[in-house]
Amino acid sequence: MTSAPLATRLSVPSGPLFFPVTAYGPDGAVDLDVYRAHVRRGVEAGAAAVFACCGTGEFHALTPEEFQDCVRAAVEETAGRVPVIAGAGYGTALAVRYAKLAEEAGADGLLAMPPYLVVAGQEGLLRHYTELARATSLEVIVYQRDNAVFTPETVVSLARTEGIIGFKDGVGDLDLMQRIVSAVRAEVPDEFLYFNGLPTAELTGLAYRGIGITLYSSAVFCFAPELALAFHKALNTGDDTTANRLLDGFYRPLVELRAQGRGYAVSLVKAGVRLRGLDVGEVRPPLHEPSDDHVKQLAQLIERGEALLQEVK
Asked: What pathway does this protein act in (predicted)?
């Protein structure tokens, strides 16, 4: 666990936020040695934080024991250099259990994902996340997506809740996000963090920057950290020429490829990590592997991205 408050460490990140995949061996079991190597490479490449066992890390497919082993491994590999945020999800009781496991493993914070299956009203969602925040000493980031979509009024209440420090958007409704940012700014004096959490967040980075949201999760960092770093630098220095060249030549085609298969937001990323020389195994069911042709297209896209980097230097 790092010493400074999580909100402080995340507010001005030195690089992209890293969401490592979870490595499996040939027998399908978690391969902690490969996972450690993946996390270590990401930190050494310039990640500002490690979000362990979240969406890209197949939180849904891990047992509680595997989850804790992976979070502990991430904490050990980062060695305090960057904060480690662990996923937490399902119903309130299980989310609290995962929070306790993450605390024991030494994590710095939690990314609270949507509750399992049910579509709850605002009152129930608020109760769920406030009870989770009360039950843990870890600072919490609430993840909006799928069956957990919030009104501005509910986010104001979340922002007033002790222990909840941020809000990650995986919906992509900029009108809603602008109203949320405005409402919280008007009602809550303390700093509150916002994150662009769309599957390939770089594609919408310029739009989110327009409403003041510059923190984002980067799945591309898992397999092409040099591209993710170049885009991150361009976005945060106002170099829109470079950002747009990377968007047009790499990120837009990547998103179009990702749209070719369900679950590709995870399985295509994992294929990318394997293409770059680290065998992290396949995804677990119910996700499935990309087709051979799609993996070939991904390899060509990575080559194109590398060529773009040479052009923009």
From this structure: Carbohydrate acid metabolism; D-glucarate degradation; 2,5-dioxopentanoate from D-glucarate: step 2/2
